[in-house]
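User: For my dataset I need records formatted as: sequence, then structure tokens, nothing else. Please produce one.
Assistant:
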Amino acid sequence: MLSTVILLTLMSLQTEVSSWTEDWYDTARERSVPVRFFAPDSNEKSTPAPLILLSHGLGGSREGFGYLGQALSENGYIAAAMQHTGSDANLRTARKSGETSLQAMARAANADEAQHRYEDVKFILAELEERNREKSKNAEHSLTGKIDFDKVGIGGHSFGSHTSFAAAGRFPYKRIDKIKAAVLMSPNMPSNVNPAFFHKNLSVPMLHLTGTNDGSPLDKSFDPNDRRIPFDNINGADQYLIIFDGGNHMLFSGHPRPLGRTPMEKKCQPVIAEIITLFFDAYVKENETAMKKIQGGGLTEMMKTLGTAEKKLLR
């Protein structure tokens, strides 16, 4: 498998974390796969780090999840924010004649694009494995020997939560073996299906995050309460549900906007990052202290007055 690094941008962050972007190319599918990395600064003797893949929603890009990638890397993870060609921010500039941005996004929310995203996850994992074994193709930021592939998680928002579900093996997809845990921000499911059947094969621990105003930009009739349906119907592994009071659909994406973050995003996103980090610490790093905290009352304590926390433990 070959890839071509087209663009490399290094950004200096105030903390001991490096962030850079690379444009990869999957020759087998003739498809561009841009990626943004967040990684803790390390040296040659550093222990390989666990890996978290991040998948944006419709119309998003690798520039989202900055707050989350930063927090994960500060806690010892390598985070890779994937950009999915065909359902990314380019939809806004590649609209058909007379088509609005929302109409373009609705058109991209289809089974073909969902499959492309699933294949993006497999490509990135395979490419990262190659770079982990061999001399890095990026002279400035080597990933050689830096990733622990026994400790891999995935997280996504909206259509990205569908991508995370697929990687975890939700019907009709096959679980990608390396995925140990998944985070679903604004979780969703196809309409007109039996939710119990749809989720019966899932055996991956999951953290579901939503808000009481987490509607759908593409469907004004969508009931935010329906975002808890996957949590209620998955019984094959530990499940957690976080609901932010007043949280809307864009609370989790972290995508840059001209006017900056909203007051609620400024208040909630640090807590979102803290909760997600705790979840991955427990189920990807398999840290006993994190496991005791998340299986106990830790999530309720972290939410305080922001909303509610529920859990379903297999054992």
